[in-house]
Prior knowledge:
This protein has 91 residues and is mainly α.
Amino acid sequence: MSPRPRDRILANLESIYREAYERAKAAGDQARMADLDAAYQREQLLLEVLLDVRDALAALPASPPESRPDQNPGPDTITALETIRRITRLR
């Protein structure tokens, strides 16, 4: 199963918040509109960081199967953690 595209995920987030924002706007609830705007920006930033981590982990080379005979081949855990650490330092 391939991961969902970044643009589709972010568009879904925007759609959810836009619907709630429009309901608050129709009700004349200025406080709710401001809360939704701030929440959307926060959620978007967090989601983008998670997508960056996902993309970085997906780009890691798999370690050779003979070096880990008891596990399925996949990204090296230490390398993955280092990648996450580097990404979080950039933000």
